[in-house]
Specification:
It is a single chain. With 201 residues, the protein is an alpha+beta fold. The chain has a domain of 119 residues: SH3 type barrels. It contains six helices and six strands. The protein has a six-stranded antiparallel β-sheet with strand order 4-3-2-1-5-6. α1 crosses α2. The longest helix has 17 residues. It starts with a helix and ends in a 13-residue tail after the last helix. It is found in: Nucleus, Nucleolus. InterPro entries: RNase_P/MRP_Rpp29-subunit, RNase_P/MRP_Rpp29_sf, Rof/RNase_P-like, Rpp29/RNP1.
């Protein structure tokens, strides 16, 4: 055998003797004759660092910071007309174009889950007569109310409960029964609505 091979054999034997001091020479020799050496290695377990969850603002803090308030100089109907145009295009894309042969219940089902920010709505029925006839662009939707800017540049806070709203787009008129609509916009997109049922204020 070449001299290099002997050196390698001696090195491996010495390495195994150091690595496994409790093993006898016969056992080491047996491993070498089989030419299969398995060295066990136990890696250190990495401790996972817990990520700190970033806490958002509480409802009280949001009110104090006035995060959802619209400044008086921004409360102008004309400013939000481009938003309404974007909303119309969004609904057309969502409904694959509001064609005359489109099935009304399919469009209604999509509108119920759609984002209404930018939609022009009218209060058609209400238990409070002073709300009837209010028309404007929805600027904000909360669980219980719509904030609407009218053509007179007045910001109206209209409750959903006990009110019926209508919206019109490309000749298609849809009605929203606020009493059945007491959800946040984000929650509504995942809710299953019954298109048929009792209608009340």
């Amino acid at each position: 055998q070449p001299q290099g091979s002997e050196k390698a054999k001696t090195f491996v034997h010495a390495f195994l003797k150091r690595s496994m001091p409790t093993m006898k020479d016969e056992a080491i020799q047996d491993m070498l004759t089989r030419k299969a050496v398995v060295l066990e290695h136990y890696p250190k377990k990495k401790t996972k660092q817990k990520r700190k969850k970033t806490k958002g603002f509480t409802a009280k803090q949001r009110r104090e910071l006035r995060l959802f308030e619209i400044e008086p100089e921004q409360q102008r109907y004309a400013i939000f007309l481009p938003l309404h145009e974007l909303w119309k295009q969004y609904i057309r894309d969502l409904c694959h174009g509001l064609k005359p042969d489109a099935q009304p219940h399919m469009i209604q089902g999509k509108l119920l889950k759609a984002d209404l920010h930018g939609a022009i709505v009218t209060v058609t029925k209400s238990k409070c007569p002073s709300y009837v006839g209010i028309t404007g662009i929805i600027l904000q939707e909360f669980k219980h109310v719509f904030k609407i800017i009218t053509k007179e540049d007045k910001l109206k806070v209209v409750p959903k409960l006990n009110n019926v709203f209508s919206l019109e787009l490309d000749g298609f008129i849809s009605y929203i029964y606020g009493s059945k609509f007491l959800l946040r916009a984000s929650e509504r997109s995942a809710k299953k609505f019954k298109l048929k049922g009792t209608i009340d204020l």
